[in-house]
Amino acid sequence: RSGSAKVAFSATRSTNHEPSEMSNRTMTIYFDQVLVNIGNHFDLASSIFVAPRKGIYSFSFHVVKVYNRQTIQVSLMQNGYPVISAFAGDQDVTREAASNGVLLHMEREDKVHLKLERGNLMGGWKYSTFSGFLVFPL
């Protein structure tokens, strides 16, 4: 069987994520620090997780918006398609958080990343995080 039985990652951002300052047409949310990367299946440079084997995986993310009078929306993408999203849009709150989590049935080589659909993310103090792990292989 391909892939390791132990698969887990957790990554953070230490700077804000503002699309106007990026040449990023895909709107992928990039992370700059890995806290855990058991099996090395999360690629920091692309900020994409690649499943090493067929199985059930758990993913979660937490993001914080930068400005009041702003809305943020983040989607967890599997193979280029949105699976779940999180939204924060209180116009009177500056530092509002959005988070979500999901279990996914994944095939070997399936890819997962976060996409910023709208808004700007707070990155300082590592407010924005993305984590995942293999629950069990199939």
UniProtKB/TrEMBL annotation:
It comes from Merops nubicus. Signal peptide: none annotated. Residues 2-138 form the C1q domain. The keyword Glycoprotein applies. Its main location: secreted. Gene3D superfamilies: 2.60.120.40. SMART domains: C1Q. It holds the Pfam family C1q. GO terms for cellular component: extracellular region; synapse. Keywords: Disulfide bond, Glycoprotein, Secreted, Signal. It is found in: Secreted. InterPro entries: C1q_dom, Cerebellin_Synaptic_Org, Tumour_necrosis_fac-like_dom. GO terms for biological process: maintenance of synapse structure. PANTHER family: CEREBELLIN-2, CEREBELLIN-RELATED. It comes from the Eukaryota. This is Cerebellin-2. Residues 1-22 are annotated as: Disordered. The lineage of its organism: Eukaryota, Metazoa, Chordata, Craniata, Vertebrata.
